[in-house]
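In response to the reviewer comment on reproducibility (Comment 2.3), we provide here a single inverse folding case reported in full, input and output, so that an independent group could reproduce the run without further information from us. The structure tokens appear first.
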């Protein structure tokens, strides 16, 4: 289940509220691009600590920062929902079996190396922390 899919009516309504169709499609395409790249790296045998995977987790963090700028604890908590929440898990598992856990672990590593537990002042501060 892709939370950005227009066929997922219950999630679609809340995610799409107040967002133009063009912007919504941009968000959806951005998420898809990131997830496909991470899935490809995972299936090619890259570990969560590979430079390539960590690069794409950085891209994932930038994507998240369009909506909310999490600190280390919050970003790792979001990653945990990817394995615990059935809708999030299904979204990532649709790309590749095992991707939800792979991304969660990769985010944990990235967050430990790039974020602090303090509040982030703004998006520029968050991006410069990487």
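Designed residues, in position order:
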């Amino acid at each position: 289940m892709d939370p950005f899919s227009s066929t997922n009516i219950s999630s679609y309504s809340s995610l799409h509220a107040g967002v133009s169709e063009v912007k919504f499609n941009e968000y959806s395409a951005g998420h898809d691009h990131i997830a496909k790249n991470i899935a490809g790296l995972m299936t090619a045998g890259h570990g969560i600590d590979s430079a390539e995977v960590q690069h794409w987790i950085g891209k994932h963090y930038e994507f998240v920062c369009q909506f909310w700028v999490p600190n280390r604890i919050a970003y790792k908590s979001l990653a945990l929902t990817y394995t615990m929440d059935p809708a999030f898990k299904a979204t990532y598992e649709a790309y590749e079996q095992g991707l939800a856990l792979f991304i969660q672990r990769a985010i944990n590593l990235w967050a430990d190396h790039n974020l602090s537990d303090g509040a982030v002042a703004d998006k520029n501060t968050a991006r410069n922390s990487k």
